[in-house]
Specification:
Length: about 200
């Protein structure tokens, strides 16, 4: 470069695989567990350029350049069910900003607390593959690795069973009363006649 040569910094005139600007403007990352999977939300906020960029699972969903108002909101959808998400940008002091994520109008923390009451989640390993099974208790919809499963409900002596298959494996979610008002109904996932432990989201 000392010779005054104006050749590019990168061989073959290629740009780097990532942008240094992106790395410096990334201000927040959240992971949101929905029925169709865990989604990674990333937010870039260029406070000098006015840039706002939102990525969901690495895919750009919003890009705004030269926003002169540095505070505000960005609203977008996440997941198969198009769940509404909003990033709030608030000034804290001087040039410091706070970024909060809302899902369906609730803070992420409140949403996840509520979600743990309305869903059950199990993670299992079958045929050298990981599976994440989610039961939505209000609709009795069953999701596996992001896909809504076809199910068949059946009444049994001590409750109900919701049957479905993962590959060649017979699965069902058994719902039985706990006998206690505060605990309500207990849901268990049975795969090939073996109970799978539930995870907490």
């Amino acid at each position: 470069m000392a010779s005054g040569d104006d050749s590019p910094i990168f061989e073959d005139d290629e740009s780097p695989p990532y942008s240094l600007e992106k790395m410096t403007d990334l201000v927040a990352v959240w992971e949101v567990a929905l029925s169709d999977g865990v989604h990674k939300i990333e937010f870039e906020h260029g406070t000098t350029s006015g840039k706002r960029v939102v990525y969901v699972n690495g895919k750009e969903v919003i890009r705004k350049e030269w926003m002169f108002k540095l505070v505000g909101k960005e609203t977008f959808c996440v997941g198969t069910a198009k769940t509404k998400a909003t990033i709030n940008i608030d000034a804290v002091s001087g040039f410091a900003y706070e970024y909060t994520l809302e899902i369906n109008g609730k803070s992420l923390k409140k949403y996840m607390e509520n979600r743990s009451k309305t869903t059950n989640t199990w993670v299992l390993h079958l045929d050298n593959e990981d599976f994440r099974v989610v039961l939505e208790k209000d609709t009795m919809d069953v999701w596996c690795n992001g896909k809504k499963m076809e199910t068949a409900g059946e009444f049994v002596d001590d409750g109900t069973e919701t049957h479905f298959s993962i590959g060649n494996h017979d699965c069902y979610i058994k719902a039985v009363s706990s006998g206690k008002r505060k605990e309500g109904i207990i849901h268990s996932l049975i795969v090939d006649n073996r109970e799978i432990p539930e995870i907490s989201c």
